Amino acid sequence: MESRVVYTEEVDDVEEAVKEIFDKLSDFELQKNSLAIIFSEEEIDYPELYEALSERWDFPIIGCTTMGILTSDGAGFKGDGMSLMVITGDECRFAADVTEELTLDNYQDVINNMYHSLSDQLGCEEKVILSYGVCVTAMNHVSGDDLLRATDAAGRAMPIFGGLASDRFNFEETRVFCNDKVIKNGQVIALIGGDIQIKYLSVNSVESMPKPKTYTVTKSKNNEVYELDGMPMVDLLEKEHFEVTKTEVMRDYLLTPFIATVEKPDGAKVRAARNLSFLDLEKRSGLFLGDIPEGSRLEIGIVKRERVTQSLSDVLFDMLKEIDESDHKYTTVICTSCAARYLALSTQIDEEAERWFPQMPKDVTFMGMYSYGEFCPASDVVDGKDYNMFHNFTFTILAM
Question: Which of 241, 267, 302 is the last residue of a domain?
Fold first, then answer.
């Protein structure tokens, strides 16, 4: 497997953007099978871009919108523009597609049917499932956990990596795309198989409060929590002096997330950060971007700039160590970083890329995006077994 990443800021001029992309890739030799991944600012005219790219490329192109890009072409963070990664290999196989618009009534069947169609196209067992979706805060839309659960069930627990498309915090311009299709409430999936090895790592940026408090979820359904320790959730938040005067609260709680310890059906316990997005003031309940089952333990955390930068150093050191010690040649790194990290770093957002770009091997390309939620396996806190999980406040890395 080989890869190349190119960045262009010419999103408003597709003709110029395509020229720059092909100029930068002029010395990059495509092998038998290829896949392109695009992370772009929300203003992109993707249909026009795809029409131009497809005149020379006949392989799948997938991607999504994002509030920010990490790219090895330009060595760092980009707040606008577009980054494109081409992955190619004689021994690799790729199959990709995007769903129709998803609803609570159809998402399981649509994702299951699409996965099995892609699996047939791939013609071999996939090593990883790349997935980018759209999740909005309204109560009647498919959540990040819904997308992950349906994909995990269809894919028989194969590793899932990716995240949710983002925009500039208006939550209205998120989109995913595949080839000539653009979807506002859907999911794009790419199966990657063949002679490849993968490694993945994740670390969240959440630390405990100075005087941590942990609550038992005594009543919940999917991603809606009604009671903590027998008390209505909104009443408990009010008691702890948190914002409870409005319904849309995602921004208010981005830097005060929750850490959920979730018990899996086989008894394993996995920790994941969760973002509170909506308060139902009549039912006194709270809705999260991920599921919180009854019986889970929920702790209110905090995101600090120091933890954000240190957590990146931790996960990067571990990943580079594994790559260096491996007999396999890793050439490609894809990462997903949470929007809360973006906010926490604020004007020092360049630190995210500056910390890890100089440490990357010169023959490894990387590209990443800031998301409204991350897909990456996480380990059971007891025996280390991996489970596909939907995260918030987390930095995730996939190496291939």
Answer: 302
Answer yes or no: do 254 and 363 share one domain: no
**Angle of the 107-122 helix axis to the 144-154 helix axis, nearest 10:** 40
pLDDT for the residue numbered 159: 94
In a domain, 289, yes or no: yes
**Of 8-12, 23-27, 47-51, 88-92, which gets the smallest average pLDDT?**
8-12
Query: Hunting for tokens 């260096």 — which residue is that?
Result: 324
Q: Is the pLDDT of residue 140 over 80?
A: no
Would you say residue 208 lies in a domain? no
Residue 145's SS3 state is helix
Residues 6 or more apart whose CB falls under 8 angstroms from that of 56 comprise: 22
d(CA 205, CA 347): 18
The residues with which 162 forms a beta bridge, in sequence order, are: 131, 375
How many domains is the chain partitioned into structurally?
A: 2
Q: Which amino acid is at 113?
A: N
Residue type, 373: G
Domain contains 209: no
pTM score of the predicted model? 0.88
In a domain, 43, yes or no: yes
Distance of alpha carbon 87 from alpha carbon 84, whole angstroms: 10
**Boundaries of domain holding 271:** 214-302
Are the C-beta atoms of 128 and 192 separated by less than 8 Å? yes
Q: How confident is the model at residue 304 (pLDDT cuts 50, 70, 90)?
A: low
